[in-house]
Amino acid sequence: MQQLTVNLWMNGTAEEAGQFYAAALPQTTTEVESRYPTEGLLDFQQPLAGQALTVSIWVGGTKLTLINAGPEFSPNPSISLILNFDPSSLEDAEAQLDATWAALLDGGTVLMPLGEYPFSPKYGWVADRYGVSWQLMLTNPDGEPAPLLIPNLMFAGAAQNKAAEAVEFYTSVLGGNVKAMFKYEEANDVVTTDSVMFTDFTLGPDIVSAMDSGVAQDLAFTPGVSLQWDCEGQEEIDRIWDAMSAVPEAEQCGWLADKFGVSWQIVPANMGELMSRPNAFEHMLSMKKLVIDEF
User: Fold this and answer.
1) Using CA atoms, how far apart are residues 137 and 116, in angstroms rounded to an integer?
2) Which of 80, 151, 190, 205 is the most exposed place for a label (fewest CB within 10 A)?
3) What pLDDT, on a 0 to 100 scale, did the predictor assign at position 276?
């Protein structure tokens, strides 16, 4: 059962974006999961009263959540989504990759051109019309089967060359193992031979990947793309919160920022049920770390 969910910040466009992704991505459906209440909102939330709060999309069975909010944040390539088009599990995988690329590029921007690379016979990196970054890859049908969707963390700017440290930290706190790690063979002005060119690892039942940027870029993790971790009870929330929260001013409504700048939402696994309680939204707004008994 999925425990890690990537959350994408949308500037009032979550429902529209959900429909866009359901049409653009293979094996994808969408649903409005929750709505803003009509009362008890903060002033800046008043324009969203009654609108969608969270919209979920399922890509090949993996859930992503679109958070409907304001212009405060936006996604950037520091956290992207890898789409693995595996000919062993997807019919007409290359044709589906081409169609998905064309759909995401409509109103989007090419970050790496679609073409042949040493690690894939067809690969491209695109930021779509909502600023969300996608890496599309035709995988080796003889290799280990990969999920259709895997999140990727790129360590750049102030977090440059901290990918290995971060992976060790996340797997120790959340529970997981490194599957594979490849280092850069040659150093340059940005990376050393200890820097991570690519790694994939598990967090609970989920697979995540990470890399150190191979070029200098002023790119930082922001709440525009956050990672949600579902906890079984208050004890797990307390343990993870204490281990991970590193920026006190970022603590709000279950959100924290870790020492690498990555934003996390540490929430109870039964968050949906808690939010259905009377005045739950108002109660949540008063919390930093979520306390189940205070909903």
Assistant:
1) 10
2) 205
3) 86
In terms of C-beta density within 10 A (0-12 exposed, 13-18 middle, 19 or more buried), how is residue 60 classed?
Answer: middle
Helix %, strand %, coil % of the chain (to 5): 25, 35, 40
Instruction: Concatenate the DSSP letters of all residues of 75-141 into one string.
Output: --TTEEEEEEE-TTTSTTHHHHHHHHHHHHHTT-EEEEEEEEETTEEEEEEEE-TTS-EEEEEEPPT
* Nearest partner of 179 among 142, 154, 145, 213, judged by Cα: 145
Residues 17-38, mean pLDDT to the nearest whole number: 95
pLDDT of residue 43: 75
Residue where the block lists tokens 């293979």: 26
Q: State how beta strands 120-127 and 178-183 pair.
A: unpaired
79-212, which class in CATH? Answer: alpha beta
The tally of CA atoms less than 13 A away on the side-chain side of residue 78 is 28
Range 27-50 average pLDDT: 85
The CATH architecture to which 4-71+223-294 belongs is Roll (3.10)
Please tell me the predicted confidence (pLDDT) of residue 177.
98
Q: At what angle do helices 163-174 and 234-244 cross, to 10 degrees?
A: 160
Domain residue ranges in the chain: 4-71+223-294, 79-212
For residue 30, what are the CA distances in angstroms to 25, 115, 134?
11, 30, 18
**pLDDT tens-digit readout, 214-231:** 999 999 999 999 999 999
β-strands 4-11, 225-231 pairing? antiparallel
Reading the block at residue 194, the tokens are 């200890």
